[in-house]
Amino acid sequence: MSKISTSIPGFVDLQVNGFIGVDFSSPDLSEEQFTRACRALLSKGTAAFLATIITSPVAVYRRNLQLIAAAMRREEFQGRILGIHVEGPFISREPGAVGAHNPAYARDPDIELLRQLNEWASGSIRALTLAAELDRADEVTRFAVSQGITVSVGHTLAGEADLERLAQAGATALTHLGNGVPNMLPRHENPIWAGLANDALTAMIIADGHHLPRPVLKTMIRAKGVARTVVVSDASPIAGLSPGRYTTLGNEVVLEESGLLHNPEKQCLVGSSATMLRCMNHLASLGFLSMEDLLEIGFFNPLRLIGLDPGSIRGDSDLLYDGESATFYVSQ
Q1: Which of 16, 73, 100, 228 is 20 to 30 A from 260 in CA distance terms?
Q2: Please, are residues 108 and 53 in contact by the beta-carbon 8 Å criterion?
């Protein structure tokens, strides 16, 4: 086995909902829990990430955004926790599109609420997911972009015109394309085809082996090209735990031996149980991307999407790659 050192310290994940049982959207989240989860994740091949808060009551945003922003200021997390991804609350309430989010907490796009959220976060919101078809989504997008926030369209039933309007307003991405939509869609007029066709929007995709089958992953990457593709883990708070039954993100879920994390009642996935290292190794195993392509998709493109310099990322270890088995390893 011949391993070569890559040019990066690990992967960059723009969507982490929690880890080892710690939920970043929990009303009971403590700074100790948050820092413990972050340390654990950062030892598993993730060099840096965005802490994600899903659609929540305003009181949870007020509390948790301030808590996370305070933890980010610690020296150990400089260049490691890159900011916050607010996934919602401006998303579709429709079944399927709302996914595992609670539709009771979804809200219409509101500039003043976004302004307040970013104040609570001390200006550290780096990404916002919203539904393009909602009224005033374009106005909120323009405001978000003016504040240095990357806008991504997700949990949406948007059509071609909706996506074009948001792209013109400054949106640059699609949150977990192929997921956060109903299980059954119109054959041609649907958010997946519209998203693939829009050249202004980078596709964020979950490559854990469960969210998107191999032909879908390959087709999406071929359609978007390596330059407009970003892998995310969408790690749920259950990531890093043993198989079993859990309550997380407001859902009763089952984590299977295979790593599949799902809500059997809703028949939907509830984030993933994977780290970026596992996602990237699954993608590498499919055999249609070079190591250089994988590094772009898993490290350089995520940073480019949120406007950060790769030189700003710190890492405690080196990422190695075994070309024979197409597998990444973290040096010890």
Answers
A1: 228
A2: no
Active site residue ranges? 234
Least confident of 1-5, 45-49, 227-231: 1-5
Total residues belonging to the chain: 332
User: What angle in degrees, to the nearest 10, is found between the helix axes of 58-72 and 111-120?
Assistant: 40
Contact by Cβ (8 Å): 189, 143: no
pLDDT, tens digit (0-9, with 9 covering 90-100), for 206-245: 999 999 999 999 999 999 999 999 999 999 999 999 999 9
How many domains are there within the chain? 1
**Burial status of residue 86 (CB atoms within 10 A of its CB: 0-12, 13-18, 19 or more):** buried
pLDDT at position 141: 98
Classify 13 as helix, strand or coil: strand
Q: Which of 117, 173, 165 is nearest to 142 (CA)?
A: 165
Full residue range of the structural domain in which residue 174 is found = 3-330
Q: What is the dihedral of CA 68, 73, 77, 81, to 10 degrees?
A: 50
Name the residue with tokens 């405001």.
143
Within 10 angstroms of residue 221's Cβ, the number of other Cβ atoms is 22
Q: What are the Cα distances from residue 269, in Å, to 163, 206, 236, 279?
A: 24, 11, 10, 16
Are 268 and 262 within 8 A, CB to CB?
Answer: yes
Beta strands in the chain (DSSP E): 3-5, 11-16, 18-19, 22-23, 46-54, 81-87, 125-130, 150-153, 173-174, 202-206, 229-232, 244-248, 251-255, 261-263, 268-269, 319-322, 327-330
**At 205, which CATH number?**
3.20.20.140
Structural element, H or E, at residue 90: none
- List residues bridging with 206 in a β-sheet: 232
